[in-house]
Design goal:
By secondary structure, the protein is of the alpha+beta class. Helix content is 58%, strand content 23%. The protein folds into 3 domains: 57 residues, no CATH class; 105 residues, Tetrahydropterin Synthase, Chain A, CATH 3.30.479.30; 55 residues, no CATH class. Strands 3-2-5 form a 3-stranded antiparallel sheet. A 3-stranded antiparallel sheet has the order 6-7-8. The chain has a two-stranded antiparallel sheet with strand order 1-4.
Length: 284
């Protein structure tokens, strides 16, 4: 009876020792007698106790690597501080374990070095304007190396490019000057368009009036009325002077115009004859 119990216990212990549960999204590597044997997939797996050993279990899901700020000198000798984020995942668990010793540290160093190299190829203006192009170039260059490690770089984002304070002030002043210049140009263009529209409107109005006068038999009387109206307006202005007069305008436009001209000439002579200098001379 005791040998049977012993055998049962051995079998139970063997089963517990050989059963390995791998979670979804993970994989594990098994070595037998110190050499790579096989890969364990998600779910329940069995290994040979004492002979087999799980040497690595890691996730195959996407992971995030935060790159600390890096000091970079651009092509035009401007000091920058650049940081970024790398999204990656293990594509081949076996190569990621046997091809590189410390995968996380290797990815960090490789990304930081490549980031500094790519940013340094550009000047300050290009580095700020071509961030998406630098992300693409960084992604391609990283994958050329990490492919040998069984790692795929999914996406690279350069989060910030920070120049020195003096350079930031100069850039802000330059942007303000550009905005002011664009505003002046837009204002000038608006005034030009308004003047063109006004001229076009005047032209159209004149064409309408001209066409209407040609079609109206009483057009000469209308023109005479407008001329008289202009003379009346001139008389209003004349009445605003110090020597105001009441002017009766002749119905004949020519006579009315002659009358206004004579009155204006007489006022001008009167003002000249009674200037302050002449008064002082008379008093003297």
């Amino acid at each position: 009876m005791e040998p049977i119990i012993a055998i049962v216990l051995v079998l139970i212990g063997y089963g517990l020792g050989s059963a390995k549960l791998i979670n979804q999204g993970n994989e594990a590597l098994v070595e037998r007698l110190g050499r790579y044997h096989r890969k364990l997939r998600p779910g329940l797996n069995f290994i040979v106790p004492l002979l087999d050993q799980i040497v690595m279990e890691d996730t195959t899901r996407e992971q995030v690597l935060d790159i600390k700020p890096q000091n970079v000198i651009t092509k035009d000798n401007i000091y920058l501080e650049v940081d970024g984020v790398v999204y990656w995942r293990i594509k081949d668990m076996e190569r990621s374990f046997y091809q590189i010793d410390d995968l996380q540290q290797a990815l960090t160093n490789l990304t930081a070095t490549t980031l500094r190299e790519i940013v340094a190829r550009n000047n300050l203006e290009e580095a700020n304007a071509a961030r998406s192009e630098m992300n693409k170039a960084l992604l391609e260059e990283l994958n050329q190396t990490t492919g040998e490690w069984g790692v795929q770089i999914i996406r690279v984002d350069i989060q910030s490019i920070t120049p020195p304070e003096s350079v930031r002030r100069s850039m802000e002043e330059q942007r303000a000057a550009e905005i002011k210049s664009r505003a002046a140009v837009l204002e000038a263009e608006g005034e030009q368009k308004a003047a063109i529209k006004k001229a076009e409107g005047t032209k159209i109005s004149m064409e309408i009036i001209s066409g209407a006068l040609r079609n109206i038999p009483e057009s000469q009387e209308i023109l005479r009325y407008l001329e008289v109206q202009e003379q009346i307006n001139a008389s209003y202005k004349l009445s605003e002077s110090k020597n105001a007069k009441v002017v009766f305008v002749d119905a004949n436009p020519k006579k009315a115009q002659e009358m206004i001209n004579r009155i204006s000439l007489g006022e001008a002579r009167h003002e000249i004859s009674h200037s302050p200098e002449d008064s002082e001379q008379d008093n003297g």
